[in-house]
Specification:
The structure is a homodimer of 149-residue chains. With 149 residues, chain A is α+β, with helices and mostly antiparallel strands. Chain A contains 5 helices and 8 strands; from the N terminus they run ββαββααββαββα. Chain A binds a DNA duplex (30 and 30 nucleotides) through β2.
DNA sequence: CATCATATTATGGTATTTTATGGTTGTCAA
DNA sequence: TTGACAACCATAAAATACCATAATATGATG
């Protein structure tokens, strides 16, 4: 299953927030009932995925030379920064404060589906980002077509 | 299976509408019993497809590259706008209000088969669209015109 | 061919469950 | 002991499951 759609939920003072129902459903077949969060390398937002995908990433980096510089960087950048957050009984997680601050989130969190991954934005920041990139993305729209079905 | 034909069904006040039987049949072998809807990038209508197709699209654009901004923007545009809607026991879905408003649908929804995808139109809007494209087609295909004797 | 029976679909209304959210309490470790 | 954090209630609103019926198609039979 995929992370689809855009949902806005409130974050309380403790950083507690409901993960959208559809997003939770997207992980219901996984052994780990929760999500992995880490800061985005390209935008002012939090990125998230399933544990399953993290393991896939790990397998991909395993193919690199153990002592290569690349491997060192990837491991330190991705895995050291990632936190696993499990859902509580009502479907909430507690987002660590440093991630909330990194994304500039105040009060409300925007969950943005991206297929295999998702992002968590401050609403205002997301609108700023969209204004900048939407037209560019539309220009590249022809590349969206399938090569083969 | 393909989405074929054009069927008109009623939408109630909650946005609830029966998906045409033939369209439901087109998804009967999929694991997700429902459809994915998103707003058209080119027309005043809603577009739809199966979850299977979405996953194919995800596989095509997913390259595990955490640092590619282009990849990020592209994924955002498609997946952040998509909603997964499962059929209820009688074969209905609830179309989100913002999509209904985007397409200008009032009362009745026109399901238009397009093979691997389909569209949902307001009837009047669809007829307007058809009239426009017919004229364009005529303009661009002078070879169709009859010779006067 | 007309008519009746049956199955499927479409539609409307209501009841129940799920979700999101806030607040409180318990617990473990620094 | 106190501060951080997880577990535990409680509740309003929203979503969806449920039930009943109408409309349509399908098919059998005399």
């Amino acid at each position: 299953m995929l992370f689809l759609g855009t949902i806005e939920n409130k974050i309380d003072a403790k950083g507690r927030v409901s993960v959208p129902s559809d997003f939770r459903m997207a992980t219901k077949n996984d052994s780990f009932q929760g999500v992995i969060l880490y800061h985005s390398f390209t935008h002012k937002c939090i990125e998230g995925c399933t544990m399953e995908r993290m393991e896939k990433l790990s397998d991909a980096t395993d193919n690199l030379d153990l002592f290569s510089e690349e491997n060192e960087n990837l491991n330190s950048l991705i895995f050291s920064d990632a936190r696993q957050l499990s859902f509580d009984v009502t479907g909430r997680i507690v987002i660590p404060m440093d991630l909330i601050e990194f994304a500039g989130i105040k009060g409300n969190a925007l969950f943005v589906g991206r297929g295999k991954t998702f992002q968590i934005w401050d609403k205002a920041e997301f609108e700023k980002y969209q204004a900048e990139t939407r037209q560019n993305a539309l220009k590249n729209r022809p590349s969206l077509s399938f090569k083969k079905d």
